[in-house]
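Notebook, student rotation project (T.W.).
Task set for the rotation: take a protein with a known small-molecule partner, predict the structure of the complex, and write up what can be learned from the model alone. Partner molecule chosen: fe (ii) ion. Sequence and SMILES entered below by T.W., checked by me.
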Amino acid sequence: MALMSWTQDLESGIKVIDDQHQRIIQFINELDDACRTGNTDETGHVMEGLLNYTITHFEFEESLQEKAAYPYLKAHQRIHELFMKKVAALRERAGKGEDVAPELLNLLKGWLVSHIKGEDRDYVESVRALLDNADQETSGWLNTTMKRFFG
Ligand SMILES: [Fe+2]
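Predicted structure of the complex:
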């Protein structure tokens, strides 16, 4: 059984964002699976992938908010920053050989859902106004930005 599943109430209606949030949930499930097998190398590997992807997603989200002139970008950045501080502390402990995956899973599971349903909702209007009828400049910007972050 997957630890988390994608449900409609998590949807923002912004395709690029929903795709990324879905990928994070998939990563969380992969980490949960790896934990259960007890394979510490695999767990460490999936955890790194998950954390790197999450950081990239935050950066992408912030770029999108900036492009959309979302007025609360700074506050949103601050929320991402505080979360990443917690993650950095876990990463440090993992570096010392501690098994932090269960704690990370708990943290992510709770935080992600409340963030997606909470603060992420607040930028939807601004970002949709930018993307729903994107002109050529905006489409070009989105393509370039997607490539820059996700290769
Ligand atoms: Fe966010």
